[in-house]
Fold these 3 entries.
Entry 1:
Amino acid sequence: MLKIYKFTVYLVVFILPLFVKQAFQNTVFPIFLSAIFISPVFYKSISIFINQFNEKMLKKRATTSFFMMFLVVSFFSSALSVDKLRSVSQLGLFIASFIVFEGVKYLFNNIEDKKKIAIILILSVLFLSVLSLYGTLVIHYVSFIDLSFYGLYFGHNHLSALLVFAIPLTGYFMFINKENRKFYPLFACFGIFFLALLNTYSRASVLALIISVYLTVIIFDLASKKKILLISAGVLFAIFVLDRNIISFSGDFEILKSQSSAIRIQYWNRAINNFLAHPVLGSGPNTFGFSSKIASTDSAHNFFLQMLSDVGIFGFLTSLGLIIAVFINAYRVTSRSLKSLNNRRKAEGYFFLALWIGILASALNNLVDFDWQIPTVFYIFWILAGLF
């Protein structure tokens, strides 16, 4: 029976990114359906947490505790929401994410099964990347046919958010296959991903991935101080070049102009003002656009400010605690594996390292963008976080 639940997760990881338009209503139904289907596994996971509840279990599964607290706050916020329909739908997405997070933790305790999820995600994103490059480089630039910047082809926010997961995972498989023939198709895949990411014109995703790699090198002490200085210089140079050039390459797109730093600051100010108007429980999940009266966006372009605006101070604190708990747990698992004297366990550490880079890049990206407002990206983040 567990194989059926695993297959459901594999299917969701592959199919969800392929929806042409990643609007909320297009992807939320299959997300809810998959969460309902694997809910028996979720029940078993939560039963273990409740039956063995003590200080040690609380520390070991802090993510579970924070997620439950966040959901309680979100429930009351939804009940008092200024737009109950939007809030209830968003609450449903939060609950579905909790179910899949706990379900994945229970189901995937074998490293080979965890790798299968990574491989399936890579294949799905590869298909999207090829389509995106064809659309961007051939249909748009050669045939001069206008394309929606947020659609499947350019992949801004949709594809770019998934590539920050897929690129480090592909790098891991390149590393472990560097002495056999699998390396060459993986290298080609890595090149396609990198080219596709640049052609999404998502500065935030590119910079988040670079910074994530840099922070990972420092946090896990993967290089000498001399190498870290060289890496620092390289990161600063990359940030300088990207910041100056990506926008100039994509200057024809009005959508980028509307997402300048000045506009983001305006969104953030509106989020803070909305929080001040609804400080305790916010205006309700996914109501930033309605409450701030900004017609051009439903997002504050910062996940934590969005939580502050939508679910108030308690939602903000519990969501912040939840994300911190995710990274503390991920650090412990990765560090323990990397320091192991057992070669097989140490090799597993490199897989967790790639996962770490991906989810850290995603979190950094969401300090200045709205990728977690896309249900597919948010759901897949929690699937990957559940693998630690």
Entry 2:
Amino acid sequence: MEAPTPPVAAPEPRPIYSTADITVNDATLNAETSEAIVVEGLNSVTLNNCTVSGNMTGSTGGSDADNIHNVMLYQSMSGDAEVGNSSFDMTDGSLTSNSGDMFYITNTESKIALSNVDLTLAADSNLLTIAGNDGSRGWGTAGSNGGKCTFTASKQTLTGDITVDAISTLDLTLQDNSSFTGSINSDKTTAAALKVTLEKGSTWKLTGDSYITEFDGDASGLDTNGYTLYVNGVAYDGDLATTGNVNYTTHVQNLGWQEAVSDGALAGTVGQSLRLEGITIESGIDGLGIEYATHVQNIGWQDYVADGAVSGTEGQSLRLEAIKIQLTGEQAEKYDVYYRVQVQNLGWLGWASNGAESGTAGYGYRLEGIEIVLVEKGTAFDTGSAAFY
């Protein structure tokens, strides 16, 4: 099935130019002087076990600003296609780019899903480019015509670099033992939003410094390969990969910063007589913030800090003696925060909540461990009968 001719002619028809929902099975689709696939607007292309190749030899319409690519998802604004989410889904088979970037997205929201596809990239090209365009061809207004893409790789090998400009977004998920070898925004561009989710069993090996805005999933699958991953401008250290409703890590005597834990897991130690010296806490729920303060040996109560900042001290050998935690943000009215601490000579105290002080002050007893949970308001939670302060 081939859709009507696009508004700007190419040197030859593409194998597929979609202004409809198109599915192709067990076919060979080759383009000698054009890109292989174009999806415009609220339309889709689904390929199953197909052999596809493209060879875009020059920009369409003669514009030097056009991207050279193999698969394009876009919105022309010509009226040929309804505005909406463009979709490209390919399972099995092969996809070859003989020139240009493998995927190019501009002036549209889009979804790409790949599963077990053999990808061959052209030399000196990107795996994926998401960017605005100069608007000269009517593809939106320059400065506000970036692309938005949700990209899911399942049982998929990806190789090559990804670029997402400052007015575009990417939500990349690697699942079902997928692998990605490449860099993301190695030129230090900060995308409007750029999230990478690495599910257990999948891997990402960096080939250059990479800049994203959010990392989620299984950090054990990340191989920085001598490079640095920056998340919101901060060098990734492993603690950003927790995925719970509430995530926290503690600085422990003789041990330093521990790996982050979440949702009621123990941070710190029990039975080792080691003091907590610092703590960071972060919410994993959009619109919900967390602020917290600690009572520190020789200092007393510190001011509240929030959302991943350090409360307590590092390198001063001062024990934490008590803590109080409260919720902020537009979602705060929907949740309660509960927390309990392991205290020298006393063991586990009872559960405190919503800003109450937990621990001791004036006794010289160290905190040794802590557990924190978020509970939706109205949900039963057994706080026990033990005192919490």
Entry 3:
Amino acid sequence: MEGAMMKNLLTFLILLCLSAMLRSQSSYLLHHMPWVPQSMHSNPAVRPEFKGYVGFPALSGLYFEYNHGLALDDVFQKDGDSLLFDPGFMISNLKEHNRLDLALDEELFSFGFSLRNDIFLHFSATEKFRTRFAYPRNLLEFLWKGNGAFLGEERDLSGLGIEALSYSELAAGVSFPFGRDLVFGGRLKYLAGRAYASAEANAFSIYTDPQDYSIRVSSGMESYSAGADILIGDEFDANLEPPVFGSANMGLAVDLAACWALDSLITVSAGLTDLGYIRWETHARRHYVKEGSYEFSGLELGDMFGDTDGAFDEQLQDIADTLEQIFDLQEENGAFTRMMRPGMFVSGEYRLGSKTIAGGLIRAEMFNSALQPSASLSLHHRLGKVMSVSANYTYKNHAFSNIGAGVVFKFGPVQLYMLSDNILGPMVPGQLRMVNFQLGLNFRFGKYQPVVAAEESPAEAVPATPVVEP
């Protein structure tokens, strides 16, 4: 009976989580598009192929991403015309460590212009929202099968964590040449936090003794919140009053990159992103449970029947008191500093003619003390003077089935771009593990002519970045 109740509870929690997920950075394609101004957000060392630009207010850069290593076909099984939910089947399709990502960006304004000596300055203001949930397969497996399936095993259930933050970003960037073949770039970002919440189980394991079936639980937990007045205790309360921009929760971050033209056909780049922090002060609060261990040897069920002296109730109360003493939830008020998620990238581009380039990109990001890698291959081609098309193949979050496409239109100074790293996902919803899109509207002015190249003969000139643009 207890095992059946546990399975029913787990089934309910999983369905609840999935429904919440489905209600709900930049495209990998954009990294290799120096003819789109927002490519400088992905690679600060890109030298754009125009003299200046102005982004359409609030519409120059919209980005959304949902990413989860689990698809619907990994959760439901077909039975004729019906779909059956089997938690055991779903758990078998999980990786050892799993995560769910959700991101939303809105660029409020942006502009940039060239200076003498090939220097390009650019500025932007963006509202950003990020959330990430990490969970181990061992946790769901233990809840589904029960402790009887793991007698004599220490089940490591750590790796459970969640982080969500919302903040504003004011950025100023520059790219400049160094000699004939190198371009350096960077972005200094002033950050204003709006709301933050995180929780992490830093030590969580369960052991069942094969002799007497006693259970030993070891655990510790830590959580932070700021920007919203969140109280956790006998009652839960949340007062969502995020601070106005510039009032508190300030931080700084920097992006750094370099681009090297090996010859007239091959260009390589490398960089670091989001090296920085936010100092959270408004309603800043920390909750934590110190690492502890509790051994449960069972209950005297005989006391439950005909219990006139309240012996069984005393057993339950003793267990509750012991748990409260060992896993005592503590609270601290005070400002704290949280580092941004640092990232890195290495990329390369190869010219396949005057109208086509091929690109490769490897990214990595730190979360929950683990490195999260991803990779992409892309192809970009110009069709006439008003249109360019792109396609890519991306691996991210254990998913290999991401095929993307993008299109850029240019009518005079007006540029419209629409990109997605997974266009097949919505067409095959059962295999959907990642969906993202990015679109925007810019006004571009002038055509960039490298000063270094203009001073050399055409045979000697080496472009800092490939040119495939309307």
